Amino acid sequence: MSTRSPASPPSAKGPAVLVGVLAGGAAGFLLTESVGAFSAFVLGRALDVAGSGGVLLAAFVAVPLICAVLGGVIACRRAGQNLRSHDRGR
């Protein structure tokens, strides 16, 4: 007999993962915009995305995508933990 709890159905985690991806992507977008605003207003020089050889553009695209993936993974794990804790209470 296995001691592992049965895997929760994918339909139970789906909405949580979607919310996690959206929240993570939004957080990544806010992070990149905050860096741009800090550079423009505090440091007094605007970031030149086109003239940086594509490195800065890649960073401004990659950060929201990485944050979205992390948000989805975290939401999936937390949804699984919540489902297991509710199953134990029965």
How would you describe the overall organization of this protein?
There is one protein chain. This protein is mostly helical. The protein has helices at 10-42, 55-88. Helix 1 packs antiparallel against helix 2 (55-88). It is elongated, with a radius of gyration of 19 Å. The two termini are 20 Å apart. The model has no long low-confidence stretch (mean pLDDT 84).
Secondary structure topology:
Elements: H1 10-42, H2 55-88
Helix pairs in contact: 1-2
Summarize the structure.
This protein has helices at 10-42, 55-88. The chain has 90 residues and is mainly alpha-helical. The radius of gyration is 19 Å and the shape is elongated.
Outline type? elongated
Low-pLDDT stretches: none
Beta-strand percentage range:
under 5%
Q: Total number of helical segments? A: 2
Instruction: Give Rg in angstroms.
Output: 19 Å
Instruction: Give the rounded overall mean pLDDT.
Output: 84
| Count of β-strands | 0
SSE order, one letter for each helix or strand: HH
The quaternary state of the protein chains shown equals: single chain
Q: What is the share of helical residues? A: over 70%
State the end-to-end distance: 20 Å
SS content category: mainly alpha
Let me know the largest β-sheet.
none
